[in-house]
Write a structure and sequence with these properties.
single chain, 57 residues, mainly alpha, Eukaryotic RPB6 RNA polymerase subunit, 2 helices
Length: 57
């Protein structure tokens, strides 16, 4: 099972929150009045954020 480090998780969520704040569509149904950061966290928890991590071997 693939696990993200806390640094990777923070980077992924932060990058996705910035995308949402700049107008990117949210990939899940979210309640009205939710912040981009909260939306990004919800996407991360569902595993649908369209970002990948490449680790050096």
């Amino acid at each position: 099972m693939f696990r993200y480090t806390r640094f990777e998780k923070a980077r992924i969520i932060g990058a996705r929150a910035l995308q949402i704040a700049m107008g990117a569509p949210v990939l899940i149904e979210v309640p009205e009045g939710i912040t981009p950061l909260q939306a990004a966290i919800m996407e991360f928890e569902k595993g649908i954020i369209p970002l990948t991590v490449i680790r050096p071997s």
